[in-house]
Each structure stands twice: as C-alpha cells, then as structure tokens.
Amino acid sequence: MSRPDRDTHPEDLAAIGRDLKRYVWILGGLVLLLWAVELVDLLLFGGSLDHLGIRPRTARGLIGVPLHPLLHLGLGHVALNSIGLLLFGGLVILRDERDFWTTLLLGTLIGGLGVWLFGRPSIHVGASGVVFALFGYLLLTGWFDRSFGAILLSAVVFLLWGSALFGLSPMQVGISWEAHLFGFLAGGFAAWLRARRGRARSPVKPAT
C-alpha cells in the first residue's frame, strides 16, 4: 500500500516565512522601544521619567497605568524584562498573534489598574507585569482551553519556568510583586477569553 504524498505548497511556506518575519519585527520593535525610552530617560532626564510610573490611589498616578511598562530602573531592569518579553512573548505570538496583543493590552491596563488600586504606596514601573501576563496566559491556557495542545503547552511552561511563580510572593523586597500578581491574573483572563471565543465558534451538537 502506497502512502499518499503530503506536499507542502510553496505559498504555504512563504506565508509561514512572512508570519515569522512579522513576529520578529514585532518583538524586536517592542524591545527596542523599551531600551530607547530608558536610554532617553537616563541620558536626557536623569531617570526622572520614572516619576510617571504608577502611584497607587493618587490621581497623578493614573498616568502610570498605560506608561509603566515603558519605564525602568536602569539598564539591568530593562535587560531582564526584555528577556522575559522575548521568551514568553515569542511563545504566545507563535500560538496566536491576536492573543499576544490581547494579553499585552490586558497586562498593561488591568494589571496597572490592579496595582493602582491595591499596590503599596510607592512608584511602580517596569514591563515585568506584562511579562507575567504573558507567563500567566501560557500557564493557564491549558486549564481554560482543555485541548491537548494547550495542556501540553502549559505543562512545558510550568516544568521549565514554574519557579517564576515565586515572583508573585509579597516576601520580595524592592520588587513590585503586585505588578507581577495582577499581570499574571490579566494573562489568565486573556487565556479565558481565548477559550470562550473557541467555544463560541464550535457548533452546538443537537441532542439525540
């Protein structure tokens, strides 16, 4: 018995190549934006732009909700968050570009509002909340989606980077664990939205 040929059409390979190239530009562009803002802050403003971060429960601090992922406490802070953004962001965008942008937006806004409402009286800055949103999406998508691929993805992420959950602990000093926590919850919400969208697309089987 002969096996039927499973040819991959050149146009399919070209489309995959275009998608991968776009993903590289998106992730690279976001990382470059973080570095550009921090360099401008350090070289031209002496780090004073960090005062635009989230100040919990203050009117002035609300401006930090959309801005806080762009602000960092030095180049080392940017480097750590850049690695997380490339790693977790890459996994999410490879799965679904729409989910990537949704998680990024929810991590910024919902995560930022959570910090503004419940955070310690300090200035909270950095993209770590967004990184934890991407991490939360990856870790919880298996729970909400319940498909084999989603469960496998969540299991692999947990096995490789489950130790990152310690970043949610309030015992850490000098780290905005609140941003991590609310970002993580926002990512879980993004995973729930994806699963809900998938169920809405599935046809309902008539009862027999």
How would you characterize this protein structure?
The chain has 208 residues and is mainly α. The chain has one domain (10-198): Rhomboid-like (Rhomboid-like fold, Up-down Bundle). It is built from seven helices and no strands. It has helices at 10-44, 64-67, 75-95, 97-118, 128-145, 148-161, 177-201. It is globular. The mean pLDDT is 91.
Shape descriptor reads globular
Topology order in helix (H) and strand (E) letters = HHHHHHH
Calculate the mean pLDDT score and round it: 91
CATH-assigned homologous superfamily: Rhomboid-like
Number of domains: 1
Q: Could you estimate the helical fraction of the residues in percent?
A: 55-70%
Structural class: mainly alpha
* CATH topology (fold) name: Rhomboid-like fold
How many distinct helices? 7
Question: Runs with pLDDT <50, length 5+?
Answer: none
> How does the major sheet shape up?
none
Amino- and carboxy-terminal Cα gap: 39 Å
- State Rg: 20 Å
Percent of residues in β-strands: under 5%
Which CATH architecture is right?
A: Up-down Bundle
What is the count of β-strands?
0
CATH class label: Mainly Alpha
Summarize it.
The protein has one domain: Rhomboid-like (Rhomboid-like fold, Up-down Bundle), CATH 1.20.1540. The chain is 67% helix and 0% strand.
Entry keywords:
single chain, 208 residues, mainly alpha, Rhomboid-like fold, 7 helices, 0% strand, globular
